[in-house]
Amino acid sequence: MRTRRENRGRNAAAANRVALIGAAREQFASEGFDASLSAIARQAGVGQGSLYRHFPDRVSLALAVFDDNVGALEALAAAPASTLDDLLALITEQTVASVAFIDMLHASDEDPRLRDVVDRVRDLLEGKLRAAQQDGRIRAAVTADDLLLAVRMIAGLLAKSTPAERGELADRAWAMLRPAITG
């Protein structure tokens, strides 16, 4: 645990924001989406007031933390040679690193800002799904929502496991789910 830093005023705002995002990423990875905001502020070495000045609520903080995740998915999906398998592999890798990412997506019914993130991920999946269906690699009846459900199922399993077990469990779960998707 880090000690609280001396208040350096406005000059420290950018550094505090970076520290908060880093601490939140670690806390979300280990504790899930409901990680203590007080613990995040303590780990970042700032007071709760600083946390709330930058991020007025949990969703704002989570969106900042996981913006890189969604950006990486969008960059991968934009690559012409990328496939649905590549996109699902990256989503799974992100889930193994932090099941809180999927917790955040799952909480989308509660906040329209999260719904926008889910819609972005769904759109990415739909684009790659159509190509995979045209190639005959994925059953025609499979939807992007089905794929999100599969990811959520795997995330639920991973949330109840240790970080060391997550990679192998994710691989085993996909091995069981893939035949239902590919027909």
Please give the radius of gyration in angstroms: 18 Å
Q: End-to-end distance, in Å? A: 50 Å
Helix count, DSSP H or I runs of 4 or more residues? 9
Main beta sheet strand tally, sense and closure: none
- Helical fraction: over 70%
Please provide the ordered H/E string of secondary-structure elements. HHHHHHHHH
User: Shape from CA axes?
Assistant: elongated
Structural class of the secondary structure composition? mainly alpha
pLDDT averaged over residues? 88
Number of strands: 0
User: What low-confidence regions span 5 or more consecutive residues with pLDDT below 50?
Assistant: none
- For this entry, what is the oligomeric state of its chains? single chain
| Strand percentage | under 5%
What does this structure look like?
This is Helix-turn-helix domain-containing protein. Residues 36-55 bind DNA. Keywords: DNA-binding, Transcription, Transcription regulation. With 183 residues, this protein is mainly alpha-helical. The protein has 9 helices and no strands. The protein has helices spanning 13-31, 37-44, 48-54, 58-78, 84-97, 100-106, 112-134, 144-159, 163-182. Helix 5 packs parallel to helix 8 (144-159). It is elongated, with a radius of gyration of 18 Å. The mean pLDDT is 88.
In terms of topology, how is this protein built?
Layout: H1 13-31, H2 37-44, H3 48-54, H4 58-78, H5 84-97, H6 100-106, H7 112-134, H8 144-159, H9 163-182
